[in-house]
């Protein structure tokens, strides 16, 4: 690798570091942000709105792919991802300076959401530009290796954000951090921005783009050429359904859903769960390069599709094993005293309440709501029409009640207290016992999940770049990548949690990534072409 190639990879990867630094900052500080910017509503709704503002960045990523992808194919790779990283960096920096709700009222959440939308739009162009820039500088036989370095930066962003937050927290008392200290990590992002822009300004334009510009062969309408012509639109759809959708759900399951499962389902302490995930990330990160390099030898398709297939086949056993090693008391209680809700199906509502406003009043809803709040897994059994719901915990039974009657609040409190006592007597733990967690095995299982992430994510940039012609590459590859990762992947935690809440089965949320990964394996196997030896020279397209 030459000095120029190393500089290209480093400069391009900084944008992805920025992406994940901001991602983890906002996610880690969501509770504080909800208090600062959404204090005009009740705390539950405020936290939900903070998460929705976070999700807004995911929703607009495909639109950013269209806007900046078109610009990248018309104006150039270098200048486009200079623009995107500047927008991303300034948006993150301004969050740190933004007055809160108490100071400027409704303008605070409105501006915050606008900044999240700006970040999402910029991110829609950032990844495609970085991946293309590196790939168009790389030798054909090392393209997988070179682009895989970009994929490692998620770990760097994670640890950088954790270090900055921890450092700031330790430098002041808790009240000061929640009042104003939380702003410092966002404000410090201006340093990352300055370094990134300074390095990128010194880079040269992609040699393939320069050649097309000199020869006058640039696309005049990259969006129309990308999506208005069936031969290329077909490749876009194959890239989405047979490549990025599966890659995205494997990525988000291996890191974010695993964290949710540890904390919300297995009730492992949040700090412990984050450290366990961080340990697995550290161990697995070098494998991004391993699988990127392997794809240079055996192909992108077999590495990525193998990761999707193994994920689809192994998720249920791996997450079941996580329960065994992280919270054995819960596993024992589920086996020896299973919880069953016996109720009239017509009385049971969908137990998912994202804005905290629904009121569950039927006897079935009262029972399921109490179980869901305590994170207790349960199964369902139909009762005769009109019968009041009963909660069975092993051999014990507890009758639920209709909460529309007088004294419902007191009866609900008494029912919940009695249910908790019955559950604890049956061995259901209030939290995972740190002394009984097998830390080695939990990290090993999390490592397996992240290893699958490295299989599907390490070669993805090279695969996408090689699928499309140089003249429309930026536009064509960015859209399927960001629909896959922004929508299929970004909303995975919400969809999977909805499935768990609806069924009571703590493993049922895994059906979403399993089905999508299996779909990608089948579609990719049948329709995705192998691209590892393709030349990217415009005159050959």
How many individual β-strands?
4
Overall outline: globular
CATH topology value of the largest domain: Growth Hormone, Chain: A
- How would you characterize the largest beta sheet? 4 strands, mixed
Cα-atom Rg, whole angstroms? 25 Å
Helical content stands at: over 70%
State the CATH class of the largest domain: Mainly Alpha
Which strands sit side by side, in order, in the main sheet? 2-1-3-4
Q: Tell me the number of structural domains.
A: 3
Mean pLDDT: 86
Structure description:
With 541 residues, the chain is mainly alpha-helical. It has three domains: 1-218, MFS general substrate transporter like domains (Growth Hormone, Chain: A, Up-down Bundle), CATH 1.20.1250.20; 222-327 and 432-541, Growth Hormone, Chain: A; 332-425, Glutaredoxin. It has helices at 3-28, 30-37, 43-59, 61-74, 77-97, 101-104, 107-135, 143-151, 153-170, 174-181, 183-187, 189-201, 207-215, 222-227, 230-265, 270-284, 286-298, 300-326, 328-336, 363-373, 408-425, 439-457, 460-467, 473-489, 492-503, 511-527, and strands at 339-343, 379-382, 390-393, 396-399. A four-stranded mixed β-sheet has the order 2-1-3-4, covered by helices on one side. Helix 5 (77-97) runs antiparallel to helix 12 (189-201) and helix 15 (230-265) packs antiparallel against helix 26 (511-527). The protein is globular, with a radius of gyration of 25 Å. 47% of the residues are buried.
Short overview:
It is built from 26 helices and 4 strands. It has about 550 residues and is mainly α.
Topology:
Blueprint: H1 3-28, H2 30-37, H3 43-59, H4 61-74, H5 77-97, H6 101-104, H7 107-135, H8 143-151, H9 153-170, H10 174-181, H11 183-187, H12 189-201, H13 207-215, H14 222-227, H15 230-265, H16 270-284, H17 286-298, H18 300-326, H19 328-336, E1 339-343, H20 363-373, E2 379-382, E3 390-393, E4 396-399, H21 408-425, H22 439-457, H23 460-467, H24 473-489, H25 492-503, H26 511-527
Parallel strand pairs: 1-2
Antiparallel strand pairs: 1-3, 3-4
């Amino acid at each position: 690798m030459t000095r120029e190639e190393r500089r290209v990879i480093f400069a391009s990867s900084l944008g992805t570091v920025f992406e994940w630094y901001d991602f983890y900052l906002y996610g880690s500080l969501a509770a504080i942000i909800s208090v600062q910017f959404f204090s005009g509503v009740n705390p539950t709704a405020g936290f939900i709105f903070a998460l929705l503002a976070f999700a807004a960045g995911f929703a607009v990523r495909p639109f950013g792919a269209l806007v900046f992808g078109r610009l990248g194919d018309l104006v150039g790779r270098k200048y486009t991802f200079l623009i995107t990283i500047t927008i991303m960096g300034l948006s993150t920096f301004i969050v740190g300076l933004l007055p809160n709700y108490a100071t400027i009222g409704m303008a605070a959440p409105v501006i915050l959401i606008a900044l999240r939308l700006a970040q999402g739009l910029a991110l829609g162009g950032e990844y495609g530009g970085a991946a293309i820039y590196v790939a168009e500088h790389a030798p054909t036989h090392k393209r997988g290796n070179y682009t895989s370095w970009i994929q490692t930066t998620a770990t760097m962003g994670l640890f950088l954000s954790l270090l900055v937050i921890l450092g700031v927290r330790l430098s002041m008392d808790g009240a000061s951090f929640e009042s104003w200290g939380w702003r410092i990590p966002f404000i410090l992002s201006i340093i990352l921005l300055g370094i990134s822009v300074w390095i990128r300004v010194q880079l040269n334009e992609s040699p393939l783009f320069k050649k097309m510009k000199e020869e006058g062969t640039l696309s005049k309408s990259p969006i129309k050429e990308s999506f208005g012509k069936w031969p290329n639109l077909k490749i876009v759809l194959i890239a989405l359904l047979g490549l990025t959708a599966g890659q995205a759900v494997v990525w988000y399951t291996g890191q974010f859903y695993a964290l949710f499962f540890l904390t919300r389902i297995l009730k492992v302490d949040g700090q412990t769960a984050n450290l366990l995930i961080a340990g697995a990330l550290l161990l697995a990160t070098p494998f991004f390069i391993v699988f990127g390099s392997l794809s240079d030898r055996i192909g992108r398709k077999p590495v990525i599709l193998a990761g999707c297939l193994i994920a689809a086949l192994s998720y249920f056993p791996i997450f079941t094993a996580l329960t065994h090693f992280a919270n054995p008391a819960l596993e024992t209680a589920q086996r020896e005293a299973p919880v069953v809700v016996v109720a009239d199906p017509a009385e049971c509502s969908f137990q998912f309440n994202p804005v905290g406003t629904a009121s569950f009043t039927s006897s079935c809803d009262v029972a399921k709501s109490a179980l869901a709040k305590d994170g207790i897994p349960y199964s369902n059994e139909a009762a005769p029409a009109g019968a009041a719901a009963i909660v069975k915990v092993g051999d014990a039974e507890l009758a639920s009640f209709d909460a529309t009657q007088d004294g419902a609040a007191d009866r609900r409190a008494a029912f919940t207290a009695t249910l908790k006592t019955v559950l604890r007597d049956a061995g259901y733990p209030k939290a995972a016992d740190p002394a009984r967690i097998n830390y080695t095995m939990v990290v090993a299982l999390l490592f397996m999940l992240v290893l699958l992430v490295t299989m599907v994510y390490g070669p993805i940039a090279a695969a996408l770049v090689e699928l499309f012609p140089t003249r429309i590459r930026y536009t064509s590859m960015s859209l399927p990548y960001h629909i896959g990762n922004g929508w299929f992947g970004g909303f995975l935690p919400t969809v999977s949690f909805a499935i768990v809440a609806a069924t009571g089965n703590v493993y049922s949320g895994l059906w979403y990534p399993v089905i999508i990964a299996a779909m990608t394996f089948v579609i990719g196997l049948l329709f995705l072409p192998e691209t590892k030896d393709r030349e990217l020279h415009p005159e050959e397209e």
